[in-house]
Amino acid sequence: MNVVQTPLPGVLIFEPKVFRDDRGHFLESFSLERYRAAGLTLPFVQDNWSRSKAGTLRGLHFQNPRPQGKLVMVTRGAVFDVAVDIRKSSPTFGKWFGVELSEENCKQFWIPPGFAHGFVALRDDTDFLYKCTDVYFPEGDGGVLWNDPDLGIAWPVKEPLLSKKDAAAPRLRDSAKLPA
Whole-model pTM? Predict the structure, then answer.
């Protein structure tokens, strides 16, 4: 497995070893020892799966209290996936990093606790899997507006399909739930 550092400390891209032949491919999507060796020591306690139409944007989501770390991957289709540092005391507060995840590239993206997360589906019927370090905690549910001009995220869509909650999310500077 190749581990790629990003400009945001702690945010990582994992490139698992993929065995391909004329029948398809095989990879280990998770191996505790391999991820521990790469620095992921938090336990995973919940798995989530979403399917999205092309142009669907989910995010930017976070929890505080009880922040979740997320190890995410695409098993069908493709997304542009984004992590935003929302820790007020961080030197990279308000900075973002994005990566394309697809069924072809088999990359995984680690978003640590203290980051907002969102993605936009680039193809119909995109299946997106999350391994989370804490269970969903509705009282800690928070969000940041997907197109907050202070963030300047270069989303590959201009008019995404949004939930009412995501369309009404506050700008980062107006969010009351940010971690210290």
Answer: 0.96
